[in-house]
Design a protein that fits this description.
Layout: E1 4-12, H1 21-36, E2 39-48, H2 60-71, E3 82-84, H3 88-91, H4 95-105, E4 112-115, E5 118-119, H5 125-158, H6 182-194, H7 199-208, H8 221-229, E6 238-239, E7 242-243, H9 262-275, E8 278-280, E9 286-289, E10 305-307, E11 322-324, E12 336-338, E13 343-346, E14 355-358, E15 361-363, E16 373-378, E17 385-389, E18 397-401, E19 404-408
Parallel strand pairs: 1-2, 1-3, 3-4
Antiparallel strand pairs: 4-5, 6-7, 8-9, 10-16, 11-13, 12-15, 13-14, 16-17, 18-19
Helix pairs in contact: 2-4, 4-5, 6-9
C-alpha cells in the first residue's frame, strides 16, 4: 500500500534537558519508516516527559490519537489509516493501554502499523497476543525497577545519606552544604510561622524579593508548605509520611547540615496538625471545623456543577461532573475549547454533551443539543445552600458563592 496517511507517535519518560530532543529523534525515525513503506505522515502526536507505566499519568496525545483512530480522520478532516512508532514500549507499557490502542486502530479495516523493525498486522490474533505479552513483561520490569529504587532509597535514608530527586531548597547541589542565600529564608520562615505569621504573607514576601524554587519557579503557598513540612530542614528524613528511625526508635540524623532545630520543626508540624480538619483563613487564623466528608476542590467548580439533563420522569439527572486532565476534551458532538491550563470536566451519562472545559472559551454544540447547568454551593460559614438552574438557551451566569465568585458555562445549541 502506498500513499497511506499515517500518524507518528513519540514518547519519552524523562526529558532531562527539557529540549524535546528525544521525541524529535523518534519522529524523525518514524518519518523514515513511513517513507520506506510509501506512507505519508500527516500528523505527529507527542507525549514528552510522560511515563507510560504509571496509571495516574494521563498521556494527552495518546488519548487524542486513540480518538482519531476510531474516527478515521483528524479534526480538520484529514484521513488517518495507520500509526508509525519507533518501538512498542514507546506506545504502551501497560496491557490495558495496549488493548485500547489495538481496539482503536482495528476499529476499521485496512489500517497499517509499523515500528522501526517493520510492519505488523494487528488484525492477527498472534501479533496482538505477542504485543500484549510484551506489555505485560514491560510492566513487570517497571515494577521490579520501582521495588529496587524503593529499597535503595530506604537503605540510603537509614544510613543518613541524601536520596535522589531535585536539589532541595536551602542546600547547594551536593545536598549536604547549606546555601548561604536560601537557607536563611527557610530559617526565618520557620521562625515567622511559629510566631503566628501566615503562609500567604511569607510567600508574597519571597516573591517580592525574587526568591525562586530550586527548579527556578515562582514560590506559591503550597510549595512553601511542602518545604517547611519536610523534616529534612532539621536533619531528619521521611518516607511515605513516616520518619526514618533507627533500631532504637529514634529518628535517623542525616549527614547534611540542618537549617533549623528538631524542636523548631516540631513546632511547625504542630501548627499543621492543629489546622487539620478546620477551615483556614488567608491570614492563617483557624476557623470552624469542617464536616468529615469535606474535600478541598482542586479545580474550579469541582463538586458544584451538576448535569441539568431532564430524565424521562421529568427530574434532573443531577450527576456530578468528573474532572479529567485531557487538554482536548472534544467529543463527537460537543466541546468547549478553553485555555490549556483550564480543568476539564466530563459529564457522566450524557448522550450528546459528554465533556467540557471549565474556563473561558467557545462552546461548539450542535443544533438542538441544549444542556442546562445545575449548580449548588454552600455559602462559607453560613450553612445555607444556594441553588439555581439556568434556563435553556441562557448565557454563562456568574454565581456569588459567599467568599468565591465562580462561573458556570452553559452548553446550548447556539454556542454560548
Amino acid at each position: 500500500m502506498t500513499n497511506v496517511p499515517v500518524v507518528s507517535y513519540a514518547r519519552i519518560s524523562a526529558d532531562i534537558r527539557r529540549d524535546e530532543h528525544g521525541v524529535q529523534d523518534q519522529h524523525r525515525l518514524n518519518r523514515e519508516t513511513a517513507e520506506r513503506h510509501g506512507w505519508t505522515v500527516v500528523h505527529e502526536y507527542t507525549d514528552n516527559d510522560k511515563s507510560a507505566a504509571k496509571a495516574d499519568v494521563v498521556r494527552d496525545d495518546f488519548e487524542a490519537m486513540l480518538r482519531v483512530l476510531r474516527a478515521g480522520e483528524l479534526p480538520d478532516g484529514t484521513a488517518v489509516q495507520g500509526v508509525v512508532i519507533v518501538a512498542e514500549d514507546r506506545l504502551a507499557r501497560r496491557p490495558g493501554d495496549y488493548e485500547r490502542f489495538v481496539e482503536a486502530i482495528t476499529y476499521q479495516d485496512g489500517r497499517v502499523f509499523a515500528d522501526a523493525r517493520g510492519t505488523k498486522d494487528l488484525y492477527s490474533e498472534d501479533t496482538e497476543s505477542m504485543g500484549l505479552f510484551g506489555a505485560v513483561i514491560s510492566k513487570m520490569e517497571v515494577r521490579k525497577m520501582q521495588r529496587r529504587m524503593r529499597r535503595s532509597h530506604r537503605t540510603r535514608a537509614e544510613q543518613g545519606l541524601p536520596v535522589g530527586g531535585t536539589r532541595p531548597f536551602g542546600w547547594k547541589p551536593d545536598r549536604l552544604t547549606l546555601d548561604p542565600e536560601e537557607a536563611p529564608l527557610v530559617r526565618q520562615a520557620v521562625l515567622d510561622l511559629i510566631a503566628g505569621r501566615s503562609f500567604h504573607s511569607i510567600t508574597n514576601q519571597w516573591r517580592r524579593e525574587g526568591a525562586k524554587t530550586s527548579l527556578g519557579n515562582e514560590w506559591t503557598t503550597p510549595s512553601l508548605k511542602l518545604n517547611v513540612q519536610n523534616p529534612r530542614i532539621c536533619g531528619w528524613q521521611e518516607i511515605n509520611g513516616e520518619l526514618v528511625r533507627d533500631p532504637a526508635g529514634n529518628p535517623v540524623v542525616g549527614q547534611w547540615e540542618p537549617i533549623v532545630t528538631p524542636e523548631q520543626w516540631m513546632a511547625v508540624k504542630n501548627i499543621f496538625d492543629a489546622r487539620r480538619g478546620h477551615y483556614i483563613h488567608r491570614d492563617g487564623r483557624i476557623g470552624h471545623i469542617l464536616t468529615p466528608d469535606f474535600r478541598e476542590p482542586n479545580y474550579l467548580l469541582t463538586g458544584f456543577l451538576r448535569c441539568g439533563r431532564a430524565k424521562p420522569d421529568g427530574s434532573l439527572c443531577n450527576t456530578s461532573l468528573r474532572v479529567t486532565h485531557s487538554k482536548d476534551c472534544s467529543s463527537t458532538s460537543t466541546s468547549v475549547q478553553a485555555r490549556p491550563s483550564a480543568a476539564a470536566a466530563e459529564l457522566d451519562g450524557a448522550a450528546t454533551c459528554r465533556s467540557l472545559y471549565l474556563g473561558s472559551g467557545t462552546c461548539q454544540a450542535g443544533a438542538g443539543q441544549t444542556r442546562r447547568v445545575h449548580y449548588s454551593r454552600r455559602v462559607a460559614g453560613s450553612g445555607r445552600v444556594r441553588e439555581r438552574e439556568d434556563p435553556p438557551g441562557g448565557a454563562a451566569r456568574a454565581v456569588d458563592g459567599g467568599q468565591h465568585h465562580e462561573r458556570a458555562v452553559l452548553l446550548d445549541g447556539s454556542g454560548a
